[in-house]
Amino acid sequence: MDGQISPPRIDFGRPPRRPCWPTTNPTPYTISRTELRFQLAPNATRVIAKLHMSARGTAQDMVLDGEGLKLRRIEIDGVALSDHRLTDTTLTIPASAIPSGEFMLETEVEISPAENTALEGSICRTACIVLNARPRASARLPSTPTARCDDAV
């Protein structure tokens, strides 16, 4: 082709393709504000998350993903929540525990960046901690960390 780049082929006989996300359904909850606080340590970093939320329509069970997390605390509107299910990869809050209208979900989890070998989430290297935050929809797609460091630091 003599080094020329051909223009993209457009097929006017088909409707435009939508991005390929794992799900195209809206989430059952909206988040109006997110507050994150990190207490960094290589072996026991604490992450405190406050999510100001409301249900879209009727409340459904809320399933939160997370691998390698130790749940330390969970509250809704400042009240400790004992009605939840915890597995190695998910935290499920039943719809019956979720108030109508706006509410604040607060979680405190402990992670170990030094033990993270998946290169996702919080990663610890010789002299720094790298936070790699991505939306759930792109959880397995390549991404760029929010901070980088040199092991020689």
Sheet with most strands: strand arrangement: 1-2-8-4-5
Instruction: Provide the succession of SSEs.
Output: EEEEEEEEEE
Helix content: under 10%
The largest sheet is:
5 strands, antiparallel
Mean pLDDT: 74
Low-confidence stretches: 122-127, 134-153
Structure in words:
The structure is a single chain. Helices cover 0% and strands 39% of the residues. Mean pLDDT is 74; it is low at 122-127 and 134-153. The protein has a domain at 29-115: Immunoglobulin-like. It is built from no helices and 10 strands. The protein has strands at residues 29-39, 45-55, 62-65, 70-76, 79-80, 85-86, 90-93, 103-111, 121-125, 128-132.
Structural topology:
Elements: E1 29-39, E2 45-55, E3 62-65, E4 70-76, E5 79-80, E6 85-86, E7 90-93, E8 103-111, E9 121-125, E10 128-132
Antiparallel strand pairs: 1-2, 2-8, 3-7, 4-5, 4-8, 6-7, 9-10
Task: Give a concise summary.
With 153 residues, the protein is mostly beta strands. The protein contains no helices and 10 strands.
Features:
Immunoglobulin-like, five-stranded antiparallel sheet, mainly beta, 153 residues, extended, three-stranded antiparallel sheet, disordered C terminus
